[in-house]
Amino acid sequence: MFDLTNLSVHFGPATALREASLTIRPGDRLGIVGESGSGKSMLALCLMGMAPEAATLSGTLTIDGRDMAEATERDWQALRARRVAMIFQEPMAALNPLSRVGDTVMDPLRLHLGLSKQAARARALDLFAEVGIPDPAARLRQFPHELSGGQRQRVLIALALACDPDLLIADEPTTALDANVALRITDLLVRLSAERNMALLFISHDLAAVARATSDIAVMYGGDIVERGPTRAVLDSPAHPYTRGLLGARPSATSLPRDANGKRARLPTIPGTVPGMAELPKGCRFAGRCPVELPHCASERPALTKPGPDRSAICHVLSQEVSA
Fold first, then answer.
1. Among 45, 179, 210, 230, which is disulfide-ready with 31 (CB 3.0 to 4.6 Å)?
2. Mean predicted lDDT score pLDDT of the chain
């Protein structure tokens, strides 16, 4: 359905996304992980046709075989909600505080599907029930501030599902939710994806949620997709040094780090910070923070390497290991 080939996003000399390639088919559940500033949300905005006006794009994005390079805003408006929909970060900010949540969900039904107000209300009630909002009739009349964080997130899911999209993009859908609510939201998205044969692009910092929600994963750093493969295989045996560092920094209730005396030690971290878009190395984006860096890593971009079945990564060190 959706095919990205070497898609790049530039802001003058700065690069927010570099030659990203992805294929998304019906029913796929793909996780996107990485630190803040890695390009995850920019990738999602490109799939929605919502890249910032100041951005310059290169490469191709095709939907059902159609190259979207010349698509107008009217073309994208016809696709949004019906073909691709997005759950944006922070539900309190994403919902209009001056509109009842029922009206917010009914608007796209009337605009895109041409439903009457009565039919749109009936559909909104069904959607609220489908996503697990209690007492849907009462909730339709409420404003966002009258709902809990979990209920607001479910309203956003109902809004995204309203026109039965083929691809649902969930951008940090569990942010600011407590652990139990986050777990229920994650399971809800997986269930809806399976029931509707709907592709799910799940963007998150929460590696546990990504492991639970997705079958494949793409790891991003500095605008690059540095590793890609089946979720379980990548999380169990990460190939790229950045992926290994990301997983190594996870806190675990069962395996807290200990020093030589058996006392609790500090959690391992990835040294340094993510550089700004205009300060990223021309070669491997992870150069300068990588524990196994080679002299040419910062200046030469690594080629694509296949560390295992259905897996890929870009890393000079890994390329040497695979060829050896």
1. 210
2. 91
Cα separation, 195 vs 197, in Å, equals 6
Backbone φ and ψ of 157, nearest 5°: -65, -45
Number of alpha carbons in the 13 Å side-chain half-sphere of residue 29: 20
Comparing CA positions, the residue from 93, 96, 11, 6 lying closest to residue 52 is 11
* 305 and 315 Cβ atoms separated by less than 8 Å: yes
What is the C-alpha radius of gyration for the chain, rounded to an integer number of angstroms? Answer: 21
Q: 218 and 262 in contact (C-beta within 8 Å)? A: no
Spatial distance between the Cα atoms of 239 and 316, rounded to a whole number of angstroms: 12
pTM above 0.85, yes or no: yes
Q: How many CA atoms lie within 13 A of 102 on its CB side?
A: 19
Query: Which tokens go with 81?
Result: 């909600």
At residue 255, the pLDDT reads: 58
- Distances in Å between the alpha carbon of 290 and those of 39, 282, 284, 287? 19, 15, 10, 6
Amino acid identity of 237? S
Distance CA 192, CA 90 (A): 21
Kindly report the backbone phi and psi dihedral angles of residue 11, in degrees, each rounded to the nearest multiple of 5, phi listed first.
Answer: -120, 90
Share of residues in the chain with pLDDT > 90 (%): 73
Query: How does strand 224-230 pair with strand 167-171?
Result: unpaired
Angle (nearest 5°) at CA 182 between 176 and 185: 120
